[in-house]
Amino acid sequence: MVVGTGTDVGKTWVSARRLEAWRAAGAKVAARKPVQSYAPSDAVRDADVLAAATGETPEEVCPRHRWLPVAMAPPMATEVLGVEPITLSELVSEIDFPDGVEDGLVETVGGVRSPVADNGDSVDLLAALAPEAVVLVADAGLGAINDVRLAVAAVIELSTAPIEVVLNRFDGTNDLHRRNVEWLSNHDGFQVTTEEDA
């Protein structure tokens, strides 16, 4: 399961790179985005990117009735659009992977405490799905340590799955980015990778 410290940290980019790598190695892969909200002007949505990485259709990645063309948290988007509220159990029941899938990935919305349904956030979804592993995506820049610590604390309250922290948009020539990796790895003991080795 791929979660983030916030919106626009690169969850979909990291997810797509992982899926492409697994697929290139010969694995049968699939991705699921239980719900997606987006600006109506967006030409490419998360489900499109994930579908391109897996060879699925965008509708297989995210059920069409879970496409919400309002750039807000899904429960807010459903309210604005005047559609039925979403429950966590509905999202969980709609996630399934085809037979033979070796690597299945579920990507959530926003940050770990972002509402994904009227009665739950991304961490609640994670707890309900009980994934084998969690990938936490964070921006490599200023604020990374705080964001990662808060997100990990929220995840470990409800999950015992191993957590890999991916610092996205990492620049190896940036002293702060390098120091953030070192601090999170050596001081906090997190398993940290960057987009260079993700």
Gist?
With about 200 residues, this protein is an alpha/beta fold. Helices cover about 40% and strands about 20% of the residues. It has a single domain (about 1-195), classed as P-loop containing nucleotide triphosphate hydrolases (Rossmann fold, 3-Layer(aba) Sandwich).
Characteristics of this structure?
Rossmann fold, about 40% helix
Secondary structure layout:
Blueprint: E1 2-4, H1 11-24, E2 29-32, E3 36-37, H2 46-54, H3 58-61, E4 67-68, H4 74-81, H5 88-94, E5 103-106, E6 115-117, E7 120-121, H6 122-129, E8 134-139, H7 144-158, E9 163-168, H8 175-187, E10 191-194
Parallel strand pairs: 1-8, 2-5, 3-4, 8-9, 9-10
Antiparallel strand pairs: 6-7
Helix pairs in contact: 1-2, 5-6
Describe it for me?
With 198 residues, this protein is α/β, with parallel strands linked by helices. The chain has a single domain, classed as 3-Layer(aba) Sandwich (Rossmann fold). It contains eight helices and ten strands. The strands form four sheets. A four-stranded parallel sheet has the order 1-8-9-10, sandwiched between helices. A two-stranded parallel sheet has the order 2-5. Helix 1 packs parallel to helix 2. The longest helix is centred in the C-terminal third of the chain and has 15 residues. It is globular.
